[in-house]
């Protein structure tokens, strides 16, 4: 278990490789995420960012290398994998909410089923979390009755309800209308401020600049560059990063 002031990284990837058929999607990835750190992964589409996120939650398996979480190698299957997944929250592009359950039921399902929390306790905690993400008034509604931004905030509350050690965000705003993006980013910025360990794949450069402890720039399945946000955005070291930023920051 994590000890206060534990110097070990929460997540560590060593020499990680991943193929999809003949496509070499991730090439010798070495990356660690410290406890309480916010790492934002950016780069062109097809660069391996989402695959990296999915590997950390073991939604995909690796072909070579090693991934450890809280000092342990990722479990292969069974109860150990279910336990591990309950410690690592994941928020996807699509909200993946149960359409036949209310917003509150979506948030409390995991704690009741997996953590064996009582319904009354789960409901109380669920309402606190819905309050935190700004949609407590929507608790009795169904996902189809909410905007995309509200659904994504529900998905964040659902991840938080499991008291995870880390949350992975895979392009959490890419499916949203532009006016809803900020409300989700505001919630994520608040989590970062509160010390939640986060790995965020995103195209939102403002969020990366404001909330990240470290920016990781990926292209062609490799980590091309990593740096603190100010250093990365004002003085990228590689031509590839400079080219990417010149295209994305002028629009």
From TrEMBL:
Domain annotation ABC transporter: ranges: 11-245
Pfam family, one: ABC_tran
Record family assignment: Belongs to the ABC transporter superfamily.
Membrane topology according to the record: Peripheral membrane protein
GO molecular function, one term: ATP binding
Entry keyword Heme: no
Name used for this protein in its record: Amino acid ABC transporter ATP-binding protein
Subcellular localization, as worded in the UniProt entry: Cell membrane
Organism, scientific name: Microtetraspora glauca
Principal place of residence: membrane
